[in-house]
């Protein structure tokens, strides 16, 4: 049976049903009553999309892809460059801090972070397709 995902990321799994609304395990999405709503956000069935063929990582979420550029002394030949951006795959929900750790960049040396050309913080959550840049000094861009 197919899983369906809500606009809010909630996944209806037919194998589990939805006990909170009296839906027994083994109920296909198609058989849910029209009065059924997303238990997370209250959206109607129309806001759900079939998860067929969606890539999943071991966490059950599709990984996101980000492009990374580094400037000046942040440049590491094997991690990131200033000439072109380097692609990285991260688990959904990763932050800039997670990315810095993945790249083994010295956190204390990262002075400015740009996400999509806007200044960001280390706790900024990354999204698929984001362009991230690290700079060690003010005014380098
Ligand atoms: Fe929802």
Quick take:
The chain has one helix at residues 96-102; strands at residues 4-5, 11-12, 49-50, 64-70, 86-90, 112-115, 118-120, 131-135.
What are the key terms here?
Ubiquitin-like (UB roll); mainly beta; 1 helix; about 140 residues; Rubrerythrin, domain 2
Q: In CATH, what is the class of the largest domain? A: Alpha Beta
Q: How are helices and strands ordered from N to C?
A: EEEEEHEEE
Low-confidence segments, given as residue ranges, are none
- Please tell me how large the radius of gyration is: 20 Å
Q: How far apart are the first and last residues' alpha carbons, in Å?
A: 51 Å
CATH H-level homologous superfamily name of the largest domain: Beta-grasp domain
User: Overall 3D geometry?
Assistant: elongated
The order of strands across the largest sheet is 5-4-8-6-7
Bound molecules: fe (iii) ion
Written description of the protein model:
There is one protein chain. The protein starts with a strand and ends in a 6-residue tail after the last strand. The model has no long low-confidence stretch (mean pLDDT 88). It is mostly beta strands. The longest helix is centred in the last third of the chain and has 7 residues, at 96-102. The chain is elongated and about 60 Å long. The protein contains one helix and eight strands; from the N terminus they run E-E-E-E-E-H-E-E-E. The strands form two sheets. The chain has a five-stranded mixed sheet with strand order 5-4-8-6-7, with no helix packed on it. A three-stranded antiparallel sheet has the order 2-1-3, with no helix packed on it. The chain folds into two domains: 10-53, Rubrerythrin, domain 2 (Single Sheet), CATH 2.20.28; 63-135, Beta-grasp domain (Ubiquitin-like (UB roll)). The protein is 5% helix and 21% strand. It binds fe (iii) ion (FE). Fe (iii) ion binds at residues 6-8, 10, 38, 40-41, 43.
């Amino acid at each position: 049976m197919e899983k369906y995902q809500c606009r809010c990321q909630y996944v209806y799994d037919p194998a589990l049903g939805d006990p909170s609304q009296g839906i027994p395990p083994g109920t296909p999405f198609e058989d849910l009553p029209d009065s059924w709503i997303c238990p997370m956000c209250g959206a109607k069935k129309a806001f759900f999309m079939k998860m067929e063929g969606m890539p999943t990582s071991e966490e059950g979420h599709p990984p996101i892809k980000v492009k990374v550029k580094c400037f000046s002394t942040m440049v590491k030949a094997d991690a990131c460059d200033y000439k072109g951006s380097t692609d990285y795959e991260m688990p959904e929900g990763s932050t800039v801090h997670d990315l810095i750790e993945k790249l083994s960049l010295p956190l204390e040396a990262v002075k400015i972070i740009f996400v999509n050309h806007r200044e960001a913080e280390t706790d900024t959550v990354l999204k698929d397709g984001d362009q991230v840049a690290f700079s060690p000094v003010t005014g380098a861009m």
